[in-house]
Design goal:
- The chain is globular, with a radius of gyration of 18 Å.
- Strand 7, helix 5 (about 160-180) and strand 8 (about 180-190) form a beta-alpha-beta unit.
- By secondary structure, it is α/β, with parallel strands linked by helices.
- The longest helix has 21 residues, at about 160-180.
- The chain has helices spanning about 70-80, 90-105, 120-125, 130-140, 160-180, 190-200, 215-225, 240-250, 280-290, 295-310; strands at about 10, 30, 55-60, 60-65, 80-90, 110, 145-155, 180-190, 205-210, 230, 255.
- The protein has ten helices and eleven strands.
């Protein structure tokens, strides 16, 4: 089994909670690494926006801080006006968990994939093809609406591992196209290589840059090709000038919003546990940057999300 891509470690299943027994591994299958320095208190919920919104990328299988299982997180999100989430896998285990949750909860759609930092471990173990076959099978399920998160990450992976990342990324692109569903891209320190791959292999009709980390140049390239940009809590940070510039030139019909929970908590709660109920904070910050009404932007991002992934109904 490869090392987990985001500094998490397996957590013991917690059997309590409605429907928990239906999920492979229980309510949590990961736990976020805690160095003892973070504030793990859960932020206060923001007021809902005037229209329902969606969190198009979250990781409810990861425990961070206090006990806040998937069903509690979804209930809190619903109270905050978040009508639905896309629960995202990063390896075979979390992809199976994500698909199972989408089957049982109408507020959830799923994305399934091998995270780029997982691909080298599968390749080294000789199980990459087997893992990709399992992702392909999960992608056929009706409530699995995206292949993700996949892509390239050159921040942690050296040249040897990058070969496995490229092979995995191209295989995921083909899976997404074969099933006619969206592709959710993880792109870290690899903007040019990601764009080159998409253009060479052929991007799926719906391609999403999850947790967009590029700049104005990449935003313009995305707009040219009709790719979606999904902004996370990082866009609310005052020093994220590249994201502010990208947002300003992005195609508004291709803007999405996400939490990437439990990571990337929006201001003013940076560093504390994140959850889908905090999505309105990011929408309001983006609206302020764009000098538009927050409800107007909320309606636009909601419509964009349904166009990209289909209805939650």
């Amino acid at each position: 089994m490869p090392a987990h891509h985001d500094g998490t470690a397996p957590a013991r299943p917690v059997p309590e909670g409605p429907g928990a027994t239906a999920l492979p591994g229980g309510e949590y299958i990961r736990e976020r690494f805690d160095d003892g320095k973070r504030d793990l208190s859960r932020p206060e919920a923001p007021a809902p926006l005037g229209v329902p919104i969606y969190d198009n990328h979250t990781h409810l299988e990861i425990k961070d801080g206090d006990d806040f299982p998937y069903w509690a997180a979804l209930d809190a999100a619903e109270r905050a006006g978040v009508a639905g989430v896309i629960q995202v896998g990063g390896d075979v285990e979390s992809s199976e968990w994500s698909a199972a949750l989408a089957r049982q909860d109408a507020r959830v759609l799923a994305a399934v994939a091998l995270h780029p930092n997982e691909a080298p471990g599968y390749a080294e173990a000789g199980t990459l093809d087997e893992a990709l076959a399992r992702i392909d099978a999960l992608a056929a399920e009706p409530r699995v609406r995206a292949v993700g998160e996949t892509g390239l990450d050159f921040f942690r992976t050296g040249e040897e591992g990058q070969r496995a990342q490229h092979a995995s990324f191209e295989a995921h692109i083909e899976i997404a196209k074969r099933h006619g569903i969206a592709l959710q891209i993880h792109d870290r320190d690899a903007h040019d290589a990601v764009v080159e791959t998409l253009l060479r292999v052929g991007a799926p009709e719906t391609t999403v840059f999850h947790c967009f980390s590029g700049d104005e140049r990449l935003a313009r390239i995305a707009a040219e090709h009709g790719w979606y940009l999904s902004f996370a809590g990082t866009v609310t940070f005052s020093n994220a000038r590249n994201l502010h510039a990208a947002l300003a030139v992005a195609d508004r019909s291709r803007i999405l919003v996400e939490t990437d929970a439990p990571f990337l908590t929006p201001a003013p709660f940076r560093g504390r546990p994140n959850s889908p109920y905090l999505t309105p904070l990011t929408v309001r910050s983006m609206a302020e940057r764009l000098s538009v009404d927050a409800d107007e932007l909320a309606a636009e991002t909601a419509a964009n999300t349904v166009r990209a992934y289909g209805s939650w109904d």
